[in-house]
Structure formats: C-alpha cells, structure tokens
Write a structure and sequence with these properties.
By secondary structure, the chain is mainly beta. It has one helix at about 5; strands spanning about 10-15, 20, 25-35, 40-50, 55-65, 70-80, 85-100, 100-115, 120-130.
Length: about 140
C-alpha cells in the first residue's frame, strides 16, 4: 500500500474492563480493546511491559477485530503497590496487523492501587507505530 492511506494508523481504544481480581501480588486484569477504524485489525500479541505493572507477551493467535468490534484481553499482572500509590507511564502494548503491515499500538495508562492494592488503570493516550518504522 502506498500514499496517505499507508500512513494512517489503526484506531484502537483500550480501557480496563471492570475491577481486577486475585491478589495480593498477582492480579487478573482485563482490558476491552475496541477497533474504531474502518477496516479489520488482527491482534497478534499483547503485553504489559512496566516493571511495576507487568505481564509477559501473550500470543493472540491472529484474533480478528472487525470495524466497530471489541474484545476482552485478560492478563495475570504483577502489581504489588500500597493502596493509593499511583504508577505512571504503564502500557498495554498490542502487536497488530493493519492493512498488511505490522504495527505496535501503545496504550499509556496511569495505574492506581485501590483499597486492597488491586490495580485500577486509567487510559491516558493511545499511539501506534509501524514495526520497523524510524524517523
């Protein structure tokens, strides 16, 4: 694909899907991932890379998310913070295929430890970059 359409990134929203469960140091945290774009997005992998809110990459077996579609992704996240602690610059990172190219979608989060220490993620910004892109 060439031209301006080639440069249009996938339009993805990521928000926490209800309260976390488990604990005290490992929490099941789910996120709703929504495709707000005009074409399908193929989800290839997802992970939480922050040292204080972490889960290794999970392969997603080419999960197709149609335009307007939403899916829930669950993680077993390492999170061990005192109630009230705010951890900034956490991410949900998605590896996706969009218009025959691989992209990295980065949903930046602010994560607060709630009353029992469970993580509550607030979305801050979602950006996307083609894998291998520089400049």
């Amino acid at each position: 694909m060439t031209g301006a359409a080639h440069d249009i990134p996938p339009a993805i929203d990521v928000v926490q899907a209800g309260p976390a469960s488990g604990g005290p140091r490992r929490w099941r945290v789910a996120f709703d991932v929504a495709n707000r774009g005009a074409g399908p997005v193929v989800l290839l992998g997802a992970w939480l890379p922050h040292g204080r809110f972490r889960c290794a990459e999970q392969p997603l077996a080419d999960l197709v998310l149609p335009p307007g579609g939403t899916t829930e992704l669950a993680f077993e996240a390492a999170f061990d913070e005192r109630p009230g602690t705010v951890v900034e610059n956490c991410f949900v990172i998605l590896r996706v295929r969009w218009r025959d190219e691989v992209w990295r979608v980065m949903a930046r989060l602010s994560v607060t430890a709630a009353a029992k220490g469970e993580p509550r993620a607030a979305p801050q910004l979602v950006t996307a970059h083609r894998v291998g892109f520089s400049g």
